[in-house]
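fwd from M.: "can u put these together and see what the complex looks like"

so here's what she sent:
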Amino acid sequence: MADPFLTVNDLTAYYGDFQALFGITLHVDAGEVVAVIGANGAGKSTLMRSITGLLSNGPDMVCWKGRNIGHLRADQIAQLGIAMVPEGRQLFPSLSVEENLIIGGQAGRKGPWNLEEIFKLFPILEERRKVPSTALSGGQQQMVAIGRALMSNPDILLFDEISLGLAPIIVKSIYEILPSIIGGGTSAIIVEQDIAKALSVSDRIYCLQEGRIALEGPAATVTREAISAAYFGI
Amino acid sequence: MDWINSIVQGVLLGGLYALFAAGLSLIFGVMRLVNIAHGDFIVLAAYLGLTVATTVGLHPLVALVIVVPVMGLIGYVLQRGVLNHTLGDDILPPLLVTFGLSVILQNGLLEIYSADPQKMNAGALETASMNLGGNLNIGWLPLLMFAVSVATIAGLQWLFYRSALGRAFRATSDNQDIAQLMGLNKAHVFGLAMALSLAVVGIAGLFLGIRTSFDPSAGPGRLIFGFEAVIIGGLGNLWGTLAGGIILGISQNIGAQLNPGWQLLAGHLAFLLVLAFRPRGLFPRIDG
């Protein structure tokens, strides 16, 4: 069995007095793709924010390769090789396409991904490298968001709702390209509302419901009925 | 010819105002922080220049090589040690803290240097001028200040749009959370922005101290000129800030030409006119 990369232990998260996560426990092994599914407000994005350090959490709640990272800042966690493609792309509007990609490599981690490789993966971005990121279509913006995350040569990629707001044909092409991105030992967490899409690329799934894990198991064996029951709480 | 002279002198004065304003514009652009103590830091830089010039015996312009890095260091430490802790969704804490800093700086300077007005002596440079025909003369010192102002703003512009640090400034300004996910330490980025802002303040303060007399209470007046130049030029636009400074300088000089007592009033009126008809300034780059 592969060594665990990421371990989340009994994670709780709060927005002020509001508790969003209740004792989430999960793990992601090296090279493994894990899907986190759930309805709106289930706590998926909160989980991503907690892992990446944008939300603070308690001691030993989030561990990376056996090391507690719960006390680290988001920029320190990014430098360890944890990258996120955030919900809604969230590109930097005052930066060009090329600058958005370059700043993704700010952490200075060595690896196979650089500007040339990103342009090979998404040739359209090379053509539009000098234009402001705001001038791109939604699909192209998602390519920049993915490329920006890859530029850090991460060990794990967190995709937060990558299909949200995109045309089905764009979503299809992004999912077709995902295996080539997350192969070669890179792990991934895919947060999705599109269950079928998430299952198609993942090894295991976790289903969140109202801040708790309602279901977990191998993607190949979890039944549609079990997912429906966990997803909708019925 | 008197009117032409007023306008030319106003343009040159505008360069100094642009230096007062550039640091304000920069930190507002990067972290949306309004530094109420900005004018007092200009005066602090003038006193630092005076101290260096008198104790080490340097020409005030040479004192720049000491004052600018010292002010930059003060800016970094201030941001990391104090101001970063005030930043958040609420805009009130940084306003209150920088207002408190303003009071502390004024009283500290008063305690150390007394209330007596001071001025730095730049020697023959202060009175040297060239004649452009008739009674139109341009002083070498105001011309030098204007040239340094343009060069400073060009340098800041280059840094902002052509360097890795500028990229980090713009990314952090756009979205602090996502910038952190890129591995940028926002506390450090903000510290560097304030260091840069106060380094520019170091230049502005030295020129202030050479051009005119100053005392510990002179800061708020410089702050107002700086604010007016920023607002006239447009928020977050460095070249706009230079244009704002020049418009302010020309307005003041035209006012003084009409009546010596109207100098400051004319500048404020120009500011109010811009605020009334173009509330985001003449060349805005960002929303307030």
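replying to her w this: Residues 168-181 of chain A form the longest helix (14 residues).
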